[in-house]
Amino acid sequence: MGSAAQTKAMKKVAGRIKGELAQYREMAAFAQFGSDLDASTQRLLNRGSRLTELLKQPQFSPLKMEEQVAVIYAGVNGYLDPLPVNRVRAFEEGLLAHIRGKHPEILEDVRTSRDLSDATGAKLKSAVEGFAKSFS
């Protein structure tokens, strides 16, 4: 989606994702030809594969904008990094259930303001951190 059509909330959380995914695709192509990858390249490849998985949505079941903001926030801030790629979907589903059940005001604020204020951003960070610690 072009940035002119994005809400302020989406711009705030997804600003880094374009660059990170571009670097990931470039490095993934390069990494096919060599097995000696330094730690930072390996981290970039790991995050890129998780962000790519995170952006997949089931057909006919798109996420609401405020839910996308929450899961992309988790992805670009490294909460998916320790997970195997095949656990990203379970993390996403669990995180959304956690936020819907225990922190619905976060989603409501993002939905109505179409922005991610500092206060709501702090609540989202706390909610994601709390869920990530308990996720297994």
UniProtKB/TrEMBL annotation:
<comment type="subunit">
    <text>F-type ATPases have 2 components, CF(1) - the catalytic core - and CF(0) - the membrane proton channel. CF(1) has five subunits: alpha(3), beta(3), gamma(1), delta(1), epsilon(1). CF(0) has four main subunits: a(1), b(1), b'(1) and c(9-12).</text>
</comment>
<dbReference type="InterPro" id="IPR000793">
    <property type="entry name" value="ATP_synth_asu_C"/>
</dbReference>
<dbReference type="Pfam" id="PF00306">
    <property type="entry name" value="ATP-synt_ab_C"/>
</dbReference>
<keyword id="KW-0547">Nucleotide-binding</keyword>
<dbReference type="InterPro" id="IPR005294">
    <property type="entry name" value="ATP_synth_F1_asu"/>
</dbReference>
<keyword id="KW-0375">Hydrogen ion transport</keyword>
<dbReference type="GO" id="GO:0046933">
    <property type="term" value="F:proton-transporting ATP synthase activity, rotational mechanism"/>
</dbReference>
<keyword id="KW-0067">ATP-binding</keyword>
<dbReference type="GO" id="GO:0005524">
    <property type="term" value="F:ATP binding"/>
</dbReference>
<dbReference type="GO" id="GO:0045259">
    <property type="term" value="C:proton-transporting ATP synthase complex"/>
</dbReference>
<keyword id="KW-0378">Hydrolase</keyword>
<dbReference type="InterPro" id="IPR038376">
    <property type="entry name" value="ATP_synth_asu_C_sf"/>
</dbReference>
<dbReference type="GO" id="GO:0016787">
    <property type="term" value="F:hydrolase activity"/>
</dbReference>
<dbReference type="GO" id="GO:0043531">
    <property type="term" value="F:ADP binding"/>
</dbReference>
<keyword id="KW-0813">Transport</keyword>
<keyword id="KW-0139">CF(1)</keyword>
<keyword id="KW-0472">Membrane</keyword>
<keyword id="KW-0066">ATP synthesis</keyword>
<protein>
    <submittedName>
        <fullName>ATP synthase alpha chain</fullName>
        <ecNumber>3.6.3.14</ecNumber>
    </submittedName>
</protein>
<feature type="domain" description="ATP synthase alpha subunit C-terminal">
    <location>
        <begin position="6"/>
        <end position="131"/>
    </location>
</feature>
<keyword id="KW-0406">Ion transport</keyword>
